[in-house]
Design goal:
CATH class of the largest domain: Alpha Beta
Number of helices: 11
Radius of gyration: 22 Å
Distance between the termini: 19 Å
CATH architecture of the largest domain: 4-Layer Sandwich
Number of domains: 2
Strand content: 25-35%
Structural class: alpha+beta
Largest sheet: 7 strands, mixed
CATH topology of the largest domain: L-amino peptidase D-ALA esterase/amidase
Strand order of the largest sheet: 9-16-11-15-12-13-14
Helix content: 25-40%
Shape: globular
Number of strands: 16
Length: 405
């Protein structure tokens, strides 16, 4: 189950970036489950990773090597997270990197591994290594669609976004895919994201750009409040367009960053819309706070309240649950009489209780929609933040209860 239309956009090839796909038999279904991504020599790369202390072996290796050498290849398997696997898990991930490095004749540190799937099970290493030549042989600049489908686990549909920009007759392409449906509460769920552009971006600048983009996209979503052991977001700049963003005018730089941010947000929102068992896509906006952290504290308290989420699923405007979540969010010296709460533009609570103008039928009308917002005005400052979340349905329980069956 997912919210909104199942739409996959036209994916523009990124010069200097290719993708290859194969079936290694990691997924029992026999579906494609192995992806190799290749970037031309001289490309820049940046990554952000889960802060989970039990981060998976491939996360450990990628974090160590992403800036230590000239990265050329990414290798991703689905169906097995290679997390909670100790020293053996690390050896397994290293073996896969070594095998791809031998095929491509690069240093093994130039290969970054990624995994997603069941935690606590060892990788079927030989199956993956045996399929690497097939994935490598299929490398193509136009395989974004197939790659987007191959990285899925409990997702119901592929997720992608692509845009082309013109700067004085020179074109920049930005294309990306992501996967994620449950265990979503990144802090940089099982979430992977890969975005590539043919712009020229020096690595330190690329790192700063990715940190900013991630903070306002993948770090603003939650399905269930669980942080994965394998989350990552990768941004590659191949430089093949010859357009150096550091040489753009201030206006053109703003244009590039705005489009990149829009693409990251689009990918993040697609993850939430495909949340496990989701029937609602809800934007939680908190404004007039003292600072951004306290706005986020309130937003996540509401978004991750099981009582709020089940009310969302029932289309039940049980606004008392929203007030309760705001109240326990941990804000100091909170004046509850000053808070206003809206469903879309319907005022439901003010002055510490139900708004005089509020009618249950109006709240019901909003809550019955697939897409709507909960707007919370704290009236104690000028900061504002928004996050994206889902409801909690019967299907979420079923999907996760039967995840390994």
């Amino acid at each position: 189950m997912a919210v909104g239309k199942d739409y996959f956009p036209e994916m523009h090839p990124v010069p200097g970036f290719r993708l290859g796909i194969a079936s290694a038999g990691v997924k029992t279904s026999g579906k494609k489950d192995l992806i190799v991504m290749e970037m031309i020599d001289g490309s820049s790369i940046a990554g952000v990773f889960t802060t989970n202390a039990f981060c998976a072996a491939p996360v450990q290796i990628s974090k160590e090597n992403i800036y230590s050498t000239q990265c050329r290849y990414l290798v991703i398997n689905t169906g097995n997270a290679n997390a909670g696997t100790g020293d053996q898990g690390r050896k397994d991930a290293e073996s896969i990197c070594q095998a791809l490095a031998a095929i491509t004749r690069v240093d093994e540190r130039a290969v970054l591994p990624f995994s997603t799937g069941v935690i606590g099970e060892y990788l079927p290493v030989q199956k993956i290594i045996s399929a690497l030549p097939l994935a490598y042989a299929s490398l193509s600049a136009t395989s974004w669609d197939e790659a987007a489908r191959s990285i899925l686990t409990t997702d119901t549909r592929p997720k992608g976004a692509s845009v082309q920009l013109d700067f004085s007759g020179k074109k920049i392409t930005i294309t990306g895919i992501t996967k994620g449906s449950g265990m979503i509460r990144p802090n940089m769920a099982t979430m992977l994201a890969y975005v590539a552009t043919d712009a020229v971006i020096e690595q330190e600048l690329l790192k700063n750009i990715l940190a900013s983009m991630t903070e306002h996209s993948f770090n603003r979503i939650t399905v269930d409040g669980d942080m994965s052991t394998n989350d990552c977001a990768i941004l590659v700049a191949t430089g093949a367009s010859g357009v150096d963003v550091s040489e753009l005018s201030a206006k053109d730089m703003d244009k590039f960053l705005a489009c990149l941010k829009e693409l990251f947000i689009a990918l993040a929102q697609q993850v939430v819309q495909d949340g496990e068992g989701a029937t609602k896509f809800v934007t939680i906006k908190v404004s007039a706070g003292k600072d951004e952290p306290e706005c986020l504290k309130v937003a996540y308290a509401v978004a991750e309240s099981p009582l709020v989420k089940t009310a969302l699923f029932a289309s039940d405007p049980n606004w008392g649950r929203i007030l309760a979540a705001i109240g326990y969010s941990g804000l100091s010296d909170l004046n509850v009489d000053g808070i206003e709460v809206y469903l879309d533009n319907i005022l439901i609570a003010e002055k510490g209780g139900r708004a005089q103008s509020y009618l249950e039928s109006l709240g019901q009308e909003v809550m019955s929609k697939d897409f709507f917002s909960i707007n919370i005005i704290l009236n104690r400052g000028h900061a504002a933040e928004e996050i994206y979340t889902t409801d909690l349905s019967y299907d979420y329980i079923k999907i996760n209860a039967e995840y390994r069956s």
